[in-house]
Amino acid sequence: MIPLRLTLRTLILSGVIIFGIFLAVQYGLLSRAIQADRSQLSLVILILYTLLSVHWLWISWRLAEEVNTCDHWAQDPSIEPERNLTGRVLADLSHVSGGQHSEQLLTLYHDQLMNRHALGHFATDLLLRIGLMGTIIGFILMLLPVAEIDDFDPAVMQQLLASMSGGMAVALYTTMAGLITSTLLRYQYHLLDTAAVDLANRVAALVHTRTLDNPRET
Description:
Elements: H1 2-26, H2 29-36, H3 41-75, H4 85-93, H5 100-115, H6 118-143, H7 154-213
């Protein structure tokens, strides 16, 4: 049930994101943002987000495999688990005498599962910070022409306003890119966190149940 739920959520969320990108391209919003951003930070943010989304899909696939391993072992504990993280932990837990040693293994297992998502959580803050850096750069570009004003000639003021609008565009587009991508990525890895916690709890429950069913091993 869990791998199916995780796979469906991953596919649905990926479809929504791809559809949103399609709409942005179709209406020219994406190209307009990239062209208006002289700092090119919006493009950097989008490239980083694409790479991190590929990493998210890969982690989702690995996590679904871990859940399948848990399900197979739950159906038949006599079979040898697959050689992934969950399989190795189940094999180790099936040979320990329970108690504190089992709790330590389960804690280590949970930490290793969650550690796979560390890059995504770091990148979420990184994308937001890049967007905020673009905001600062945009305001700097917007205010630089003010220092070059020698008189209040209408032609000069018109050129000044054009330069200031270019800086404002940089600030707004980079901020928008950073906020949207960091929010999406945070939710993407939140799905993985939830699935990983569920998997760790299932493994702990299975080991506890097996210990109760086989008291001679404890």
